[in-house]
């Protein structure tokens, strides 16, 4: 065997053990080196004991041996630490004792919309195009011990701002005190309603309803106290008020004298986990959830002026199909018109991965300058490649009334356009990946 081939054999053997040998112990490594030395001695003897190694070649071989020893020590250190990593509802890494962990999740949604309206007058106007509706990254896990958890999420891309204003979304820590009690501090999304409390990646439709955006309160900063048992959950919050994400503190802040909120849920049947998404998958047990939420804030800019928003909702799932309904109301006091609205929606799986869905929604603004009503119908079909991890949503929507100023910002979330005329309609499709 030639010298070149011998050195190549040594290098190939060494690097193969690094690439495919997982974690080697010190004794195994020393044994391999001893075998290599014996083989080299045999080759030297076969060549009559001549000085066949130059000083340069000997240095190269010693370097290879040292690299193997250093890599072995590193691998032993990682093994001893017991660090874990992999994928479980997100890519994660954590310490062996479970006291520290990091999980990374991605939400990516690409949407196509065709909209037909009469916003420019009597003639129809067609608008179509693609948009990167959401690109969000979430970091979550626990620190100190398993009772301390955190969640930080940011939108790299997001159209419109009824749901979210700014780049940073969630940014909070939570402490679990046991016996069902926990406290959250930081920035978090309003969850007074069931629809707003459902993650955007787990929706049954392409987008939340326009009515839920109209009465939703966006992101806020503050504290929340939670209690959960097997049958019911309760959350109360003390915060800066609606749509105060990423607000900085300064003289006169916040804009409200006081802002409080809360939500109560009673689980009549089923499990809490099944209500984390809006679908009722085939084979899933039946479940029934009732809930209600309220938020009240007193404005510092107008004496005795307060805004109260409340909702009641219910969801029934029967393993392969579901129906949900919600009622909303908002009282502005004497300042502006009061508002009410409701939604009724449902879905039914025609196969394990194909679902038919439909939703009707209605909203009204009563009082000056004039009474205004709005209603719309949406129907579609969803294809689930891997449940909510990868799916294609399609829908057709029809607005029975014009999109007036009291809900044009909320309507933009679902790609409705401001339009005084009745009969606006849309065709939409969206790819959603949540992993």
What's the SSE blueprint?
Elements: H1 3-20, H2 26-46, H3 55-81, E1 84-87, E2 91-94, E3 101-117, E4 125-142, E5 148-158, E6 168-178, E7 181-189, H4 210-215, E8 219-228, E9 232-239, E10 256-269, E11 287-299, E12 306-317, E13 321-331, E14 338-351, E15 354-366, E16 372-384, E17 390-399, H5 408-412, E18 425-434
Antiparallel strand pairs: 1-2, 2-3, 3-4, 3-18, 4-5, 5-6, 6-7, 7-8, 8-9, 9-10, 10-11, 11-12, 12-13, 13-14, 14-15, 15-16, 16-17, 17-18
Helix pairs in contact: 1-3, 2-3
Task: State the gist of this model.
With 435 residues, the chain is α+β, with helices and mostly antiparallel strands. Helices cover 18% and strands 46% of the residues. A 16-stranded antiparallel barrel has the order 3-4-5-6-7-8-9-10-11-12-13-14-15-16-17-18.
Radius of gyration: 30 Å
Mean pLDDT: 84
Shape: elongated
Helix count equals 5
Describe the sheet with the most strands.
16 strands, antiparallel, barrel
Instruction: Provide the spatial order of strands within the biggest beta sheet.
Output: 3-4-5-6-7-8-9-10-11-12-13-14-15-16-17-18
Listing every helix as H and every strand as E from the N terminus to the C terminus, the arrangement reads HHHEEEEEEEHEEEEEEEEEEHE
CATH class group of the largest domain: Mainly Beta
Under CATH, the homologous superfamily of the largest domain reads Porin
Main structural class: alpha+beta
């Amino acid at each position: 065997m030639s010298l070149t081939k011998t050195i190549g054999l040594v290098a190939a053997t060494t690097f193969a053990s690094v690439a495919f040998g997982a974690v080697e112990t010190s004794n195994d490594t020393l044994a391999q080196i001893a075998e290599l030395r014996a083989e080299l001695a045999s080759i030297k003897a076969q060549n009559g004991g001549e000085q066949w190694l130059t000083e340069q070649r000997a240095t190269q071989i010693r370097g290879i041996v040292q690299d193997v020893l250093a890599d072995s020590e590193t691998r032993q250190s990682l093994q001893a630490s017991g660090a874990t990593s992999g994928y479980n509802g997100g890519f994660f890494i954590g310490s062996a004792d479970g006291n520290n962990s990091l999980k990374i999740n991605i939400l990516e949604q690409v949407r196509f919309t065709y909209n037909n309206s009469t916003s420019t007058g009597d003639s129809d106007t067609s608008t179509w195009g693609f948009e990167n509706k959401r690109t969000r990254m979430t970091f979550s896990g626990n620190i100190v011990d398993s009772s301390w958890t955190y969640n930080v999420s940011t939108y790299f891309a997001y159209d419109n701002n009824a749901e979210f204003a700014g780049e940073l979304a969630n940014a909070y820590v939570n402490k679990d005190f046991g016996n069902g009690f926990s406290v959250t501090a930081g920035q978090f999304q309003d969850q007074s309603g069931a629809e707003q409390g459902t993650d955007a990646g787990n929706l049954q439709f392409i987008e939340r309803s326009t009515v839920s955006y109209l009465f939703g309160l966006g992101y806020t900063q503050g504290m929340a106290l939670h209690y959960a048992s097997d049958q019911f959950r309760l959350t109360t919050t003390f915060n800066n008020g609606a749509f105060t994400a990423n607000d900085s503190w300064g003289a006169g802040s916040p804009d409200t004298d006081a802002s409080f909120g809360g939500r109560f849920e009673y689980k009549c049947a089923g499990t809490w986990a099944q209500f984390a998404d809006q679908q009722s998958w085939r084979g899933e047990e039946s479940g029934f959830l009732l809930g209600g939420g309220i938020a009240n804030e007193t404005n510092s800019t107008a004496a005795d002026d307060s805004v109260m928003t409340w909702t009641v909702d219910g969801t029934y799932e029967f393993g392969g199909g579901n129906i949900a309904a919600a009622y909303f109301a908002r009282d502005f006091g004497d300042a502006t018109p009061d508002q009410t609205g409701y939604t009724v929606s449902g879905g039914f799986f025609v196969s394990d991965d194909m679902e038919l869905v439909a939703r009707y929604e209605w909203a009204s603004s009563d009082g000056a300058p004039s009474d205004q009503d709005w209603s719309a119908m949406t129907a579609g079909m969803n294809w689930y490649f891997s449940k909510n991890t990868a799916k294609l949503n399609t829908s057709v929507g029809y607005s029975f009334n014009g999109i007036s100023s009291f809900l044009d910002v909320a309507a933009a979330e679902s790609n409705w356009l401001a339009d005084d005329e009745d009969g606006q309609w849309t065709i939409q499709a969206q790819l959603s990946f949540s992993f």
